[in-house]
Amino acid sequence: MKSPTIAALTMACSLALGALAAVPAQAEKVLRIGMTAGDIPRTLGQPDQGFEGNRFTGIPMYDGLTQWDLSKADRASDLIPDLALSWAVDAKDPTKWIFKLRPGVKFHDGSAFNADAVVWNVGKVLDKTAAQFDPSQVGVTASRMPTLRSARKIDDLTVELSTSEPDSFLPINLTNLFMASPAQWDKKLAAVPASVTDRAERAKQAWIAFAADASGTGPFKMSKFVPRERLEVVKNDGYWDAHRRPRIDRVVMLPLPEANSRTAALMSGQVDWIEAPAPDALDAIKGRGFKIYSNPQPHVWPWQLSFAPGSPWLDKKVRYAANLCINRPAMKQLLGGLMGEATGTVEPGHPWRGNPTFQIKYDPAAARKLMTEAGYSAAKPLTVKVQISASGSGQMQPLPMNEFMQQNLKECFFDVQFDVIEWNTLYTNWRIGAKDPSAHGANAVNISFAAMDPFFAMVRFVDTKAAPPTSNNWGFYSNADVDALIGKARTTFDPKQRDALLAQLHARIVDDAPFVWVAHDTGPRAISAKVKGVVQPQSWFIDIATMTMD
Questions:
Q1: Which of 91, 113, 168, 445 is the most exposed place for a label (fewest CB within 10 A)?
Q2: How far apart are CA 474 and CA 460, in angstroms?
Q3: Helix (H) or strand (E) holding 310
């Protein structure tokens, strides 16, 4: 066999190099998401747009001291450490907590995360004298951790948090306080023109600039932000948690509030993932090779009722009748099976269920009997007005669901009227309360809520002290027995004893019916088959950072 000539080898190498040159560089892996929100949730560290904001502009770009474990689909999410390694209540003073912080964590701008940063971030929402105090972040934060009062540095990696009263819920509440970079904010403040001399206005302008060039410690970093149009984030190769260091290069988030528009964007290839697909399109979506992910969530889709003077819901017979008049099995069918039937805030088998005497079910005959006893009939219906949204985080399919309820309740002598407003406006109104002009005369509000911890599931809606503007007791519900149970549960630090008290609390709430309980979401989302490693947890949230793409 003859050896190849130099010329032949040269030609072969040239051809090989040419072939390699013809191979394009590895394509950027981009995940495009269609959200239900009508706008990009705020990016400055405390998102709006409900928990869809936490899901898409909070958890990807930021961390809290604590977080939810989103790595499992077969069990409810547990509270786990995040930027705090550990925490404990002071044995001598249960209003003080000591948090040990994770060393070596950097913000996206390269500055260090430490105790000073924690104190600064508490100050941004609680300390009106702080330079960084931002009233626009207070409503979406303070109402979720109403007892937190201050933070004090002990050393670089130790911080003391103080509460207004003993509060065993605090570590859970802190999942909602995201850590923004003080150094990045200082940089934006320094760039505010010297002609702006008002301190509050300077802080406001610094936060606006920060929102456009955000810096957290999360697995993704902001790349491009166009309000009402798109947010792009890119992977943070230096993220402190190697397990959550992203393998997707870029995530693009688009606000698509209308279900059919989201579905069309998915089917046409404009996006790879949509929240809450249109139920009547599920078969078509699956037929095109997309995967539907869903899982029972700690979530309630209700009407929250007003107890303000003159409200039609002050009569318990009326509240019971409304709960008995909803055909939940038929609604589930309407939603393609992607719904759980609610008989309370939590269901049988949950440690907080308790033993309510009022059994929520579909019994329109019993509902009509109660309404007759309350003085109503087909000829004399009870008019109720509900403030609702057309879309929004966790709102499932609010228009068809509410219209379905309207028809159900008509059979039980209710005349249901709607005030349909934009989701984020509704969410803001929720913190203002039924007595405010923003309610437009509504005596019920339809806002879904998370039920993964005691405060979010129950306390913020029924504690007399949680009435607006403190938290989400929109309807000004007040019951001394309920308040006493809350006080006992909040000051009980043993988990089993606390669960027993919470079971009593839940039973008491169901028996008093301050809600019309309707559904539990399963968090349906349709995702391209090229997106791998999707874990749909039993949580309102989902972790994009651990996913991959073909």
A1: 91
A2: 9
A3: none
Measured distance CA(473)–CA(483) in Å, rounded: 13
- Contacts of residue 13, defined as CB under 8 A and 6 or more positions apart, other chains included, come to none
Q: Residues near 301 by Cβ (< 8 Å), separated by ≥ 6?
A: 342, 394, 395, 396, 401, 446, 448, 518, 519, 520, 521
Coil/strand/helix, residue 291: strand
**Token pair of 327 as six digits:** 């055909």
As to burial, measured by CB atoms within 10 angstroms (0-12 exposed, 13-18 middle, 19+ buried), residue 443 is buried
Strand-pair category, 30-35 with 66-68: unpaired
CA 483 to chain centre: 26
CB 472, CB 429: distance < 8 Å: no
Contacts with 212 (C-beta within 8 Å, 6 or more apart), sequence order: 43, 225
Q: What is the mean pLDDT of each run of 10 residues along the chain (550 residues)?
A: 37 36 66 95 94 95 98 94 97 96 98 98 97 94 92 98 96 96 98 97 98 98 96 98 97 96 97 96 96 94 98 98 98 95 96 97 98 98 97 92 98 98 93 96 96 94 95 97 97 95 98 98 96 95 96
Please name the residue ranges forming H helices in 380-422: 398-410
Q: CA–CA separation, 423 vs 37, rounded Å?
A: 8
Report d(CA 476, CA 466) in Å as an integer: 8
CB-based contacts of 516, cutoff 8 Å, min separation 6: 302, 303, 305, 319, 322, 323, 326, 405, 444
Distances (CA, A) of 443 to 399, 474, 531: 18, 10, 44
Q: What is the pLDDT of residue 383?
A: 98
Structure tokens at 447: 């806002």
d(CA 49, CA 252): 17
Pairwise CA distance, residues 73 & 210, whole Å = 35
Q: Which residues make Cβ contacts (< 8 Å) with residue 370, sequence separation at least 6? A: 317, 318, 320, 321, 324
Tokens at 307, concatenated: 């107890």
CB 463 within 8 A of CB 482: yes
Report the half-sphere exposure of 48 (CA within 13 A, side-chain side).
Answer: 18
Residue in the structure block whose two tokens are 């924690």: 118
516 strand-pairing partners: 303
What pTM, to 2 d.p., does this model score? 0.87
Locate tokens 């006493």: which residue? 484
Helical residues (DSSP H) of 357-475, grouped into ranges = 364-373, 398-410, 423-430, 454, 460-462
First-to-last C-alpha distance (Å) of the chain = 45
Please state the separation of Cα 316 from the chain's center in Å: 31
Contacts of 495 (CB under 8 A, 6+ apart): none
User: What beta strand segments (E) does 19-174 contain?
Assistant: 30-35, 66-68, 79-81, 84-89, 96-101, 148-155, 158-163
- The secondary structure element, H or E, covering residue 527 is strand 525-527
Axis-axis angle for helices 495-512, 480-490 (nearest 10): 160
